[in-house]
Design a protein that fits this description.
This protein has one helix and no strands. By secondary structure, it is mainly alpha-helical. The relative contact order is 0.03.
């Protein structure tokens, strides 16, 4: 037996074992890729409709926020009008009230002064 034949036999055995190992690994990887493909298909079937529903929900939320913004603008306008009306009424009432208070104080002082002068003359 020659060493070349032994080396060729060993090399052949090693190549056969390597080929079987690679075939086994490729079959396992094929199964893994098959499961990954099924997972991605399910993910596609479930996530796309979910994202579509999410988009519809966000559109509705944006619509409601737009309506809320309109309502807040209206509320600010009403508040400004109420404030203006209150200031107008307050100034309309305050000025005559001050005049009436001044007049009543003057009349009260005049009456007090007259009463005091009559009390001194008697």
């Amino acid at each position: 037996m020659d060493w070349t034949a032994v080396l060729e036999g060993s090399l052949s055995f090693f190549l056969v074992v390597t080929a079987l190992a690679l075939a086994f690994l490729l079959m396992k990887m094929g199964g893994t890729f098959s499961r990954l493909n099924i997972f991605l298909k399910r993910l596609d079937e479930e996530v796309i409709p979910l994202l579509s529903k999410l988009q519809v929900t966000l559109d509705e939320v944006n619509s409601q926020l737009g309506k809320l913004d309109d309502m807040m603008g209206t509320l600010v306008g009403v508040t400004d009008r109420v404030d203006h009306t209150t200031r107008t009424i307050s100034s309309a009432i305050a000025s005559p009230a001050k005049k009436v208070a001044g007049l009543s104080a003057g009349v009260s002082e005049a009456i007090t002064s007259l009463v005091n002068q009559r009390g001194r003359h008697q």
